[in-house]
Design a protein that fits this description.
The complex is a heterotrimer. By secondary structure, chain A is α/β, with parallel strands linked by helices. Chain A contains 13 helices and 12 strands. Chain C has 11 helices and 10 strands. The chains are: A alpha/beta, B mainly alpha, C alpha/beta.
Chain lengths: 341, 322, 276
Amino acid sequence: MEEGAGEGPPQLHLMTPLLEVANLAVAYTSRTGGEVAAIAGASFEVRAGETLGVLGESGSGKSTLAAALLRLLPENGKIQKGVVLFEGQDLLQAEPRELEKIRGGRVALIFQEPALALHPMLRVGQQVQDVLAAHRTLPRRALRERTLELLSSVFPADAERISSSYSHQLSGGQRQRVLIAQAIACEPALIIADEPTASLDPTTEQEILSLFRTLQQKFRLAMILITHKPAVLAGLADRVLVLYAGRVVEIGPTETVLGSPHHPYTQALLGCLPPPIESYANCSKTNLPVIAGDSANLALLATGCQFEPRCAERMNICIKSEPATVGLSNTHVVACFKYGG
Amino acid sequence: MRYFLRRLMQASFLLLGASILTFLFSALAPGNYLDEMRMNPQISADTVTSLRAQYQLDRPSPIRYLRWVSSTVHGELGFSFAYNSPVAPLLWVRAWNTLLLTLTATLLAWVIALPLGFWGATAVGRWPDRALSGTVAALLVLPDLLLALSLMILAVRSGWFPAGGLVSVGFEALSPLHKLRDIVLHMTMPVAALVLSSLPILVTHVRAAVTEVLGAPYLRAAAGNGIPRRRILVRYVLRAAANPLISLFGFSVGALLSGSLLVEVVMGWPGLGPLLLEAILARDLFVVIGGVLLSTVFLVGGNFLADVLLYWADPRIRIGRT
Amino acid sequence: MLLLHENGPPLLRAENLEKRYKGARGRGSGESVTALGGVSLSICPQTTLALVGESGSGKSSLALCLACLEPLTSGCIWFGGRDIAALDEPHLRAVRPQIQLVFQDPASSLSPRLTATEIVSEPLLIQQRFGKQERCARARGLLERVGIPREKAGQTPDEFSGGQRQRLAIARALALEPKLLILDEALSALDCSMQAQIANLLLELQSSLGLTYLFITHDFPMAAHLADEIAVIDRGKIVEMDASRQIVRAPKHDVTRRLLAATPGSFATTPLLRVV
């Protein structure tokens, strides 16, 4: 085995990433005609079988990131530059036909809001079958059987009944399960899930997350799990990417990023959660630590570090220029001047 | 099913109400069929009085209404003074002619409007859509009367199409194929006028319905699942855009009898239009009531049809939450 | 401070509230859905009662019924010495200003055409309190009170971020100087950092204005953080109600245990459940 340019431990070279995103930039045209940068130069990778958690609040560009990877941005969104290398192919250069094959075939995307992601006037079984039919040439009967099989894997008890139901007859958790059945229909290598549990209550959320866990193990799926709740990622993600105002501010193993975060934003974000139940002492009615100021507004980006206006540790340099990413270890990267960026 | 029965009940009450109202309004309006005779010095006052008795115009309104109802139950719809015959057979002939015209026109308009609107919606903002929108807007501001008149002028000047009427003189002698050709030629101009006047509204609605659906998240989700664009357009979009279009379709069925009156009068098509116009001018009361009632039947029927179609097409109406 | 109130009479006491909706399916078939099946609870002045439950447990029906926005099927709501559930509309009008609601999604409860100042002064206008100048002055004061910057007072809600919109909704709810604020999932749609800000604001307003809160949520940690007492609701019934500390430390009912089990632990200690 030949040594590369000398960076990183040798075992990384054996493992080509499944997905490699380099320098991705996405902008929206606003109603007034101006351009709003939603993602500015994001780079990261996902290895086969690995789950990458993307943590970001509103305005972080997390849904834009999900849509951009498969070129499913709304009309006014445009990918300005970058490379999205999936299994060796740049998805940003792929022909529409090839893209249709990859979407739902090799890479499945679970959109936000299961209530809106299913067609209201088609039976959900039919919608699962449509995904299969788009990627596999099978006789009708085989399609129908495979559809029921898929639905049984997420609804062990009543796949038949669910299959002939319409979206409005299902609960939020059930709809999410249907979306998951669609996503795994063609045994993809990667699933991108955008806020899969945002609209669910905690009990259902736990059910869906444990379903994801089962799928990871069963199919050796790689996943990009996008959420605004750090709690969703604990126990599910191998690594966590923190997004703020369209910038990747921190990437690292989950234990590191959630357990001992380094970027001031990650630190502040994790700090402002209410204390976990097991460490609850008494209703003290004390104030929670907060991140000062309002959430990031992509339309009003200034020069310098985007988090600077809300940062408790801001320095002079933060106003003038944007920090570059610094490797704190082989696996942990932070974009902050505090660490020399 | 209970829902449909209730709708049917409502419809019959509506018809009853419409007939009473028309009756009431014509009773309130000054004058009656015999007024013109009374002005005529050649007809004696005695004759007019005896005619009054014969037509029962001397009876109080409620009695006349009840008599009309009983004649309607017998399928006569009252009596026409001008034609000296029961109203029903008069209306039937004319209604068939009108239906022949409007059914053809409505079908044609929908067949043209659906793809046009669809196409405009998928190309929003690009030149095909702009051109379409411009044409539609131009047609929309053009008054129907002007449209009909200019088509008439075109027909007369070019001589390609007969101007007015349903069939040519000597129609009976023609072979079946030539008969058909003759009718088609006569229909062309009125149908063109009707299609052109209803097309802009239909295209606008189809385009709006499809545009609204095109932004729906479930279409993006379908695209995200790799479902081919053509299949998304044909299956997903059309299904989702159906509701407002079905309502509109019900409306255009409802207008089958009343929508073409102006065009019929201008182009001399022997449908309900000219008949009703004459009847109104001559105060031929029961013909007017019959015409109004027939239009109401179609309006109610069109809405009912739309309801049935909606029920069939939309599971959210058909099946409640469980 | 707190103990004084705990022994005093409750601000609001609900007895055996029942709410049934006519079935959506059976038109006139007499089928009905029970949203609340005999709920009793009381809230002491200047304290917070958190109502925790899953979606569909009857939380929101209870909120609407307590605010007298939905008629009850049966039951009494004692507030200010009378049963407000038995009042007719004209009398209710005098009570309503004292109980205000804040919803989960501020975007849908704020008129998009009015400016922030207009939104906050609108309740005063409807109740015909004060002159125009005074109303505006009060609205501006309230906006400042909830932390909306002065330059935003003339803007419409769509120019506000999610957190600011919720601040605006709170300012509007405070305009009529209510005694009880019903917060129906008021923090649920917000980001973590915004939740913390609004939670702090609620605490600050409570201590300075002497407000009483009914905090409806499915977020157990936040409920435990904000509330003196917690009531757990399941299928239209309160299954457990006690001091927050008791509920969290020693949950008695299965539903409470299930809800507690579904809350996230601290991340540092949660092990990754699989081997990579």
